[in-house]
Amino acid sequence: METPEQIRDRLLANFPGAGAVVVANPAPSAQHSIAIGPGRAREIATWLRDDPALRLDYCSNVTGVDWPEKEIIETVGTPAPDPAGGPAKTAEQKTKRIQPGCLEVVYHLYSMALRHGPVIIRLRTGNRTDQITLPSLTPVWRSCEFQEREVFDLFGVVFAGHPDLRRILMWDEFKDHPMRKDYVEPDDYEWEPTAHDKVLAKAKKHYPAEPAATGEATEGAKP
Amino acid sequence: MLGSGLIKGLAVTAKNLAGSFHDPARFVTTEYPEVKTKLPENYRNFPFLVSENADDPMGTLRCVACQICEKECPPQCIYIEKSKDKKPDAAGKMQLYPAVFDIDISVCMSCQICVEVCPFDAIKMDQVFEIATPDRFQPLLLDRNQLAKPNSYFHEVHPTEAAEVDARLTAERKAAEEKAKAAAAAKAAAPAKPAGAAPAPAAPPSTTPTKPAQAPDPGSRRGDEGSAEPSKPPPPAA
Amino acid sequence: MIASDPLSPLPGAHVHAVHDEFHGDLLEVSMGPHHPSTHGVFRMMVTLDGETVVKLKPVFGYLHRNHEKLGENTTYLGSMPYTDRLDYLCSMTNNWAYALAVEKLAGQAVPERAEYVRVILAELTRLLNHTCLAGFLLQDCGASGTPLMYAFREREKILDLFESLSGSRMMCNYQRFGGCRVDPPPAWLEAASRLVDGYNAFLDEYEALLTGNEILMARTQGVGRLSAALAVSAGITGPMLRAAGVAYDIRKVDAYGIYPRFDFRVPLGDHGDTYDRYMIRVLEMRESIKILQRALHELPAGPIMDPKAKLRGFRPKPGEAYGRIEGPKGEIGFYLISDGGPNPYRYRVRAPSFVNLTILEDLCRGHTVADAVIILGSIDIVLGEVDR
Q: Which of C307, C332, C81, C320 is nearest to C178 (CA)?
């Protein structure tokens, strides 16, 4: 089977300007992926499915990933010569920049005809707020139907061209998208006797005088 | 002949029906609760704390409140509060003990991870499952008095595992004692050394687990030494 | 309580009549979520023209526990007991798929004895699952309990084996990253050998009861035909795919673990109907017995867990991995993204039942509502992994 670099080169040859970048995977699994621009993703997917050397006819897994905004602080050190003639001091300059967040959809493709795989492709949205539309690959691989609905339900990515895009795991009237990193759970707390960390913080808000959940209180009370 | 498949099937049913009168393999119902099935030794339900001595369960708990089980528990059902003072453990070393040790068994999923990560063999899996209660909150929160059971009980429910744990702990204690004796002998044999010159031939740290604040060696865990828990064979599967 | 009017609500059914000019009245029936034949809390909104299914929309999510978010908030080891509860009938294979994905992520090696034990337990799980399915399929057909109880009687023996090995019948929590938790003692291996040797006799008796049965054949042959092209496009895997005629078994394709050492065949179906799906599973059980006999015979001595494997403080380096195995229901895969911390950054379960449900409507269209129940039964879903 071809390496991701070879696939990318052929892809760019067939779809110039499509924007395909190999995303290296540092883990020992060495499963590198190809990030594709959403513009011509459906044509590229059809090509991946029908190309005689690849024949990726089986889309095994569609995953949504939430990459929130990250603040990256870069430190640049510029050596400044010491006027007194001593060793040069390094003046450090810190620049902050915000790496914009996005929602990402990862497709794991295998070939049942040629029995190889996986070829992993990634589609990224513009940001996490208003540019959240990606082309749906359900017309290419029917297995994406339910899985894209799940990514829509849990992450909020809108798939253009999906035959039936509605929530699948949460109920239809549910608001918000639970798998996002900034999801806030509804305030429906129930008392937990062995609360820890975040749950304990919630308990303290709800029950200002915490109930005595210590051993001494229940001495002698056998279950 | 039409219906021959059906007749063959009915013959199988007849064989099972007739067999259920004399063949235990065909009639597998046990009339619980009058007759109880024997559970395998490895069967686990909820955890319990091991105390060395049945006469003083709270004073001889093996637990030193290191809170490793609390951190590793996936549903976070263990709640531990360390004591303020220290008590001598079975080897004579001063250790903290748990002032509060609660397990919420309505949350516990019997996964046994607390048992696997405990470096002190202080928490083990129990086998009691007939513990239904009408109230779902307080009676399902077991405190350390309800959780503590003596080592003799541990031998009753898990004989092979208890034997292996006891053997290992006595071996460790013996090794620690001998090291301490050797260190004391070495110290006694060099009385002329001026105080404060070189550091005294310090007794090497005992091999029994020390302060709970130090995370114990992650390599010392149950289950990775080949012969972990040999069990009794399951009921005859004829 | 039940009125004489035929359209009045029967207990358990929500009935809503829709008037369609071309077809007359179409009836929209909601089957489930509380339903004895839907294999869990599963709901089907079925639109009927008389008894024929015109439209079918599956509705699920009633067992959604947001397992994937739990995975992000729990350590890698802590997620292992949660994987038991995905496909709660086959916990050993769920554990193995997760352990495989983490081992790929961290580059963790597994000793040979552990690989053999994993194969033994996975094939026992396959026997367990297919036996269970045969029983439930017949139950859905209306054979009120006899085949189901015979199947469960045999299944109990396998569950007893699991209990004496891992401590629990279904929630085994047995695989670890780098091996298995407990080393099977010789007594257990003997008991397993005896069970496996007796299983062919059980299958012969079970087939005598079922396979030539005219009623079963009349109800399942020609029902719910799945074409190979649709199966591949819809991402169907497992016995359902092979019943449609596509020779794709991940044990042969990916050659994970030590499966290349075993000589077993992959049965294929000709018609892709419900009867084929049932027969494929029976044939797969016979192949599993062959694998088991060989594995139990050849099990080498050695460590059950890699000595360098870490139980606590396990922090794989940043990266990602997708690990999949041929579970009894199809391809079960785990996709993990690590950011170097103790918890995964993204933890995704690729559940076979979830994807296999894609074509439920296609299979049921044109058949009667009674066939819809049998088709659902032959797809073999477990809501624990559909909803996660």
A: C307
Instruction: Locate the chain B residue with the closest alpha carbon to C147.
Output: B13
Q: Which chains touch C (3 or more CB pairs under 8 A)?
A: A, B
The runs of H, that is alpha helices, within chain C are 67-73, 80-84, 91-106, 112-141, 146-166, 186-210, 214-220, 228-233, 239-243, 250-253, 274-298, 352-356, 360-364, 369-379, 383-387
For C202-216, how does the pLDDT look when each residue is reduced to its tens digit (9 = 90+)? Answer: 999 988 888 888 888
The per-residue pLDDT for range C101-117, each reduced to its tens digit, is: 999 999 989 999 999 99
**C contact test, residue of A168, A177, A182 with most C CBs within 10 A:** A168
Contact B133 A213 (CB under 8 A): no
Name chain B contacts of C169, Cβ cutoff 8 Å.
none
SS3 content of chain B, % helix, strand, coil (to 5): 30, 15, 60
Q: Which two tokens stand for residue B102?
A: 């609660």
Q: What is the pTM of this model?
A: 0.85
Question: Chain B contacts of C164, Cβ < 8 Å?
Answer: 40-43, 231-234
**pLDDT of the residue at C6:** 44
Q: Measured between beta carbons, which residues in chain B are less than 8 angstroms from residue C195?
A: 237
Pick the closest to residue A168 from A153, A157, A179 (CA basis). Answer: A153
pLDDT digits (tens, 9 = 90+) for C249-287: 999 998 898 999 999 999 999 988 999 999 999 999 999
Q: What is the model's pLDDT at position C121?
A: 95
What pLDDT, on a 0 to 100 scale, did the predictor assign at position B228?
A: 36
Place of tokens 């084929």: C276
CA distances from B143 to A209, B27, B75, B231, C374 (A): 21, 42, 17, 30, 49
Whether residue A118 is preceded by a cis peptide bond, meaning omega within 30 degrees of 0, is: yes
Q: Which residues of chain C does B2 touch, with a Cβ-Cβ cutoff of 8 Å?
A: 214
Rounded Cα distance between B214 and C121, Å, is: 38
Q: Give the single-character DSSP code of A115.
A: T
Say what the pLDDT of residue C20 is: 54
8 A C-beta contact, residue B231 and residue B42: yes
For A191, which residue in chain B has the nearest alpha carbon? B137
| Domain covering B47-181 in this structure, CATH number | 3.30.70.3270
The residues facing C28 across adjacent strands are C16, C47
C124 contacts C92 by C-beta, under 8 angstroms: yes
Q: Which long-range contacts (CB under 8 A, 24 or more apart) does B26-31 make?
A: B28/C153, B28/C156
C233-267 burial, b if ≥16 CB within 10 A, otherwise e? bbbbbbbbbbbbbbebbbbebbebbebeebebeeb
Q: What is the mean pLDDT of residues B132-149?
A: 86
Q: Which residues does chain A have within 8 Å of residue B105's beta carbon, measured at their own beta carbons? A: 223
**How many Å apart are CA C259 and CA B159, to the nearest integer?**
37
CB contact at 8 A, C256 and C262: no
CB pairs under 8 A between A and B: 55
Position B118 scores a pLDDT of: 92
Contact: B104, A194; criterion CB under 8 Å:
yes
Tell me the per-residue pLDDT of C335-372, one tens digit each, with 9 for 90 and over: 999 998 999 999 999 999 999 999 999 999 999 988 99
Predicted ipTM of the assembly: 0.86
Q: Best of C230, C268, C335 to disrupt the A interface by mutation (most A CBs within 10 Å)? A: C335
C195 CB-contact burial (10 Å; exposed 0-12 / middle 13-18 / buried 19+): buried
Mean pLDDT, range C330-338, rounded to an integer = 93
pLDDT under 50: residue ranges of chain A: 210, 213-223
* Distance (Å, whole) CA C345 – CA C238: 29
Q: How many CA atoms, within 13 angstroms, populate the side-chain half-sphere of residue B87?
A: 16
Rounded mean pLDDT of chain B?
78
* Of A189, A183, A182, nearest in space to A210 by CA: A189
The β-bridge relationship of strands A116-124 and A33-36 is parallel
